[in-house]
Design goal:
alpha/beta; single chain; six-stranded parallel beta sheet; six-stranded mixed beta sheet; 22 helices; 23 strands
């Protein structure tokens, strides 16, 4: 003990009285100068005080040191006991996660004996994997579940280098840097999470419900029974949501507003919005089942934002063809349903309104730039030609952006380029288009609504006046700042939509070549009028025939190249039947000018196989795997392609997968099919 010396603040406190003696000596000098005898006596008193102080300090140091050691030992024991009896579970492990020590609360929680259990903590808490351990000297904080409880875990990494270096019984390997242990402190937040879940369950969710084909369904019922059909639909909707403690209010004959709790939304998600199918069972003699669309807004921060989100969701649901639910949950969008074909509208009011609006936008700008999608097909080019003719008849300069024509469009494009009736700059490449676009340019996008699928995405940011005309269903990504958006998923093709629009623009007369191009777009997208055709499809075709379209001329332009024919045969030969109802194949791209076109044609032919519900043909083009998906009417291939980042129609869709091989793309496709089959989505 004699070698142990006090230091720091304690040393200064002990020796402070001795330092004050200097002050007494200074005072003594003053006293001595006044009276020598008094000064001498004071000096003797100071020396006696110093002697007594030294004797007391020598004896007191030993007593103080003994008391300090006793206190430290008792304090350490108290600390250890308090930590052991600490109400929150606490454990210490080595740097590999093996338990070194844990307190009573941890033992009670896990049912382990602190004296014998020395295995890894991950064996108890499966979610505490090695990647959730902090680096040396750091701390992490996250939540885990254990049994029926929820804990917030604080994990500290304590560096032990100095302690080991100062120890007389431990030695550290010189090559090992950063020896440390982990300290785990568990805070039970089960009750807090319970209250948080209750709060979340009580938050408001807003939704809109629209009947997709209300007018068409009523027209198919006798007039005296129409009120009964309406009453049955109202009862079905109100009964369904009243069971979920939700409030439904009808604000138009075919529109409802819905307010419910988040807990009710969870039940709806679990049932995958079974109302979509239940409402179709309402039948009192109506020829077509009633379908509805639902737009839901949730977790957007306020009631007003939820309502705005629900409004955008219902617009998206209608833009995708109806008969589905679009849930905008915060920033995420989820789709439910969408398994049935979009119902063709018998009324053309919407087409007339859109035509008038488009004409006004064209007349308000000096130039019109028309753009389709990448790998331009004949439907996109035909629609672009139709808009071009409308612009020229309205005395506006117009250009069509073409940078990646396919084999099906090349013959048509060459005819326009070599025709004296058309300006030399009618067709521009991307560089020329970007140089020509300015603030006084109207950009018309046809046959596509996804920004990254357009011929040139950069053009979308170069003007604020954008019009979108498309027949593909909208997905999560779409052109958001369009001043006019006309998207009709029920339409057979964009050419059909443009042909309708042209009929409502006064003084528009197509040339024979232009009518041929539009007719070709309809012909290809309907597979020679075999798929997705309706009354309005044939009416559009009749309008084009009246403007000079010739069927034989169009068919001659589509005669196939021998290499394309061989590639299609190879695709059919390599077809693989998957899960009995799905066929998957690969289209060879070598020697083929437009593998994607051949792949889509082969996908159509594969549907002729007995029992096949959907076909998927993959092809490698420019290091991107393109998937062409087709179905008849039993399956929605669009929702399958959306899982792979694509989209399209209910029976005609596609996707693009960059950075993978054909075999890897096949495996991705098969995994998606497996997941959707297991989940009952297809």
């Amino acid at each position: 003990m004699g070698k142990v010396r006090m230091t720091g603040q304690l040393k200064r406190y002990i020796y402070a009285p001795m330092a004050l003696v200097l002050l007494l000596f200074v005072v003594n000098v003053g006293v001595y100068s006044i009276h020598k005898t008094a000064g001498f006596l004071m000096l003797l008193g100071i020396l006696l005080y110093l002697l007594l102080l030294a004797i007391v300090n020598v004896r007191r140091n030993a007593v103080i040191m003994n008391e300090m050691v006793t206190f430290a030992a008792q304090y350490g024991q108290i600390q250890k006991q308090m930590l052991k009896e600490f109400s929150d579970p606490y454990a210490i492990t080595d740097n590999r996660g093996r338990l070194l020590w844990f307190n009573d609360a941890f033992a009670e929680l896990t049912g382990k004996d602190s004296s014998s259990y020395k295995k890894s903590i991950t064996g108890i808490f499966r979610s505490l994997t090695a990647d959730r351990f902090p680096a040396s000297g750091q701390m992490l904080d996250y939540g885990i579940e254990f049994g029926e409880k929820y804990f917030r875990v604080e994990v500290s990494s304590l560096v032990m280098d100095q302690i080991i270096d100062d120890s007389q019984v431990l030695e550290r390997d010189d090559e090992e840097i950063g020896t440390f242990i982990y300290a785990f402190l568990f805070h039970d937040e089960t009750e807090l999470q319970s209250y948080m879940r209750k709060y979340e369950d009580e938050t408001m969710v807003c939704a809109y419900i629209y009947l997709d084909n209300y007018d068409e369904a009523l027209e198919s019922v006798e007039e005296v029974r129409r009120s009964l059909l309406t009453a049955l639909i109202d009862r079905k909707i109100n009964k369904y949501f009243s069971d979920l403690d939700a409030i439904v209010r009808k604000f138009e004959i075919d529109k409802y507003m819905l307010v419910m709790r988040t807990a009710s939304l969870k039940e709806l998600k679990e049932s995958r919005f079974s109302l979509l199918e239940e409402v179709k069972t309402v039948n009192i003699g109506n020829d077509m089942p009633v379908t509805l669309s639902i737009g839901v807004g949730a977790n957007n921060g306020s009631y007003m934002k939820n309502a705005d989100s629900a409004r955008m969701a219902i617009e998206l649901a209608l833009g995708r063809g109806g008969d589905q639910v679009v849930l905008r949950d915060g920033d995420s969008i989820t789709y439910y349903g969408g398994k049935s074909q979009g119902t063709e509208k018998s009324t053309r009011v919407k087409a007339r309104v859109k035509a008038q609006a488009l004409q006004e936008y064209i007349e308000s700008k000096e130039r019109v730039m028309i753009m389709g999608h990448h790998l331009l097909d004949i439907d996109a080019f035909g629609a672009a030609v139709g808009i071009y003719r409308a612009c020229r008849m309205l005395n506006k300069k117009a250009n069509i952006v073409v940078d990646s024509p396919t084999s099906s469009t090349a013959p048509f494009i060459d005819e326009y380029r070599n025709n004296a009736d058309y300006a030399s700059d009618m067709i521009m490449n991307v560089e020329e288009a970007m140089a020509a676009v300015d603030e006084d340019t109207l950009l018309v996008v046809v046959d596509v609504n996804k920004p990254d699928y357009t011929e040139c995405e950069a053009l979308l940011s170069m003007t604020d006046a954008i019009v979108v005309l498309d027949h593909h269903r909208q997905g999560k990504e779409y052109i958001r700042k369009a001043v006019l958006s006309y998207i009709e998923p029920y339409a057979s093709s964009t050419c059909e939509m443009v042909a309708e629009i042209l009929q409502y623009m006064e003084g528009i007369r197509l040339k024979a070549l232009e009518a041929d191009t539009l007719y070709a777009g309809i012909l290809i997208d309907t597979d020679n009028f075999a798929q997705r055709t309706g009354v309005r499809t044939f009416e559009a075709a009749a309008y084009l025939r009246r403007n000079g379209a010739d069927v034989m001329r169009v068919k001659k332009r589509f005669r196939e190249d021998p290499n394309d024919y061989k590639a299609k045969g190879e695709t059919l030969r390599n077809a693989e039947i998957y899960h009995r109802y799905y066929v998957i194949s690969e289209c060879p791209g070598k020697g083929v000018k437009s593998p994607t076109i051949v792949a889509s044609q082969a996908a159509n032919q594969l549907l002729n196989i007995k029992e096949v519900k959907a076909s998927f043909v993959l092809t490698n083009y420019n290091n991107i795997i393109y998937i062409s998906a087709r179905s008849i009417d039993e399956l929605n291939v669009q929702i399958i392609m959306e899982r792979l980042g694509g989209g399209g129609h209910i029976n005609m869709a596609g996707a693009q997968l960059p950075g993978v091989t054909v075999d890897e793309a096949k495996e991705k496709l098969k995994r998606v099919l497996d997941e959707m089959l297991e989940g009952g989505e297809i």
